[in-house]
Design a protein that fits this description.
Order of helices and strands: EHEHEHEHEHEHEHEEEEEEEHHHE
Structural class: alpha/beta
InterPro entries: Gfo-Idh-MocA_inositol_DH, Gfo/Idh/MocA-like_OxRdtase_C, Gfo/Idh/MocA-like_OxRdtase_N, MI/DCI_dehydrogenase, NAD(P)-bd_dom_sf
Subunit structure: Homotetramer.
EC number: 1.1.1.18
Protein name: Inositol 2-dehydrogenase
Strand content: 15-25%
Bound molecules: nicotinamide-adenine-dinucleotide, (2R,3S,4s,5R,6S)-2,3,4,5,6-pentahydroxycyclohexanone
Shape: globular
CATH superfamily of the largest domain: Dihydrodipicolinate Reductase, domain 2
Keywords: NAD, Oxidoreductase
Amino acid sequence: MTLKVGVIGTGAIGQEHINRLNNKLAGAQVVAASDIDAAAARAAVAKLAPGAKVHADGRAVIADPNVDAVVVTSWGPTHEEFVLAAIAAGKPVFCEKPLATTADACLKIVNAEIAAGRHLVQVGFMRRYDSGYRALKKAIDDGAIGAPLMVHCAHRNPSVPEAYVSSMAIVDTFIHEIDVLRWLIGDDYASAQVIVPRNTRLTHSKLDDPIIVMLATKGGIRIDGEVFVNCQYGYDIRCQVVGEDGVADLPEPQSVPLRREGRFSTAILQDWKLRFIDSYDVELQDWIDATKLGKVDGPNAWDGYFAAVTADACLEAQRTGAVVPIVTTPRPVFYDKG
Ligand code: NAD
Ligand code: ISE
């Protein structure tokens, strides 16, 4: 059986996902799409999924009887509406991060899914599918470095558009670390603090760049995460876990080492599309396969909610400079992993 997918939002990652669902991966076909920019949706469909129907809005994509499952790749503030509508229609939904832009909105989604009585929601935290993070997790789980004590990480983008402001460093960018580190070390967060060093000359009045996010876990692990979105030199994701018996690093992406003109060098990737290209493929293939079996195997609505609660605490810490506790509602039994 082919999973017939409707995609809402045909911007950068929407087009990437339409292409992989329709032309790269097995078992799915994009049959419908929409974007508030209708011309952009028509152009994306003509190029990547000819024959798919272009709808006037996202709700029409969800209601289309030909659509079995929905992919939400529109702007973050629209996610809540479309995920709730997909749950109400009883359709599985893959939503790009963030699940919603506030913890309250994510909790609404959690409660709607529980009321629907079956798992329908997966969140696009693709780093859990990255071979490097998976190898790092295996080393930690196998006890290669003993109990983790500290994590040092960095999330660097070469540059960001003018519309990117301070809060986005948390809800758009560091949200990836928030999810993947919790999964990596198997511990929930207890508190957050944000430190603002001297700003780069390349930022503007509405963006503190770089920042350092400090997280403490319930088990006492300390995490420091640098977010630097105007670093210029490339798209660079780093993660080092310091344990009682050793230190484990996230592997560098493969690149041919070159010796030339008196220098020894390797290329640095320039954006997320290439850095995580394999992870997106594995993530969406897994989603297609699990959806056909009526399951959600990847990051679920609870993970999206947990990330949003943490992000809200980081935002408060960013505003106030205080150490802010991270407190969630108790995890419903519905989200216990069998
Ligand atoms: P983008 O601006 O390139 O695309 C977003 C698209 O959504 C635009 O075409 C816009 O017109 C459309 N849109 C906005 N409101 C809409 C609505 N109500 N209905 C339909 N379409 C609507 O942004 P992007 O970089 O593609 O990001 C989209 C989402 O994907 C964001 O939530 C972002 O955080 C996430 N993202 C995830 C990753 C990742 O690594 N997992 C990478 C990039 C973006
Ligand atoms: C973007 O939305 C992503 O998800 C990228 O992975 C991240 O590096 C970038 O900062 C975000 O804006």
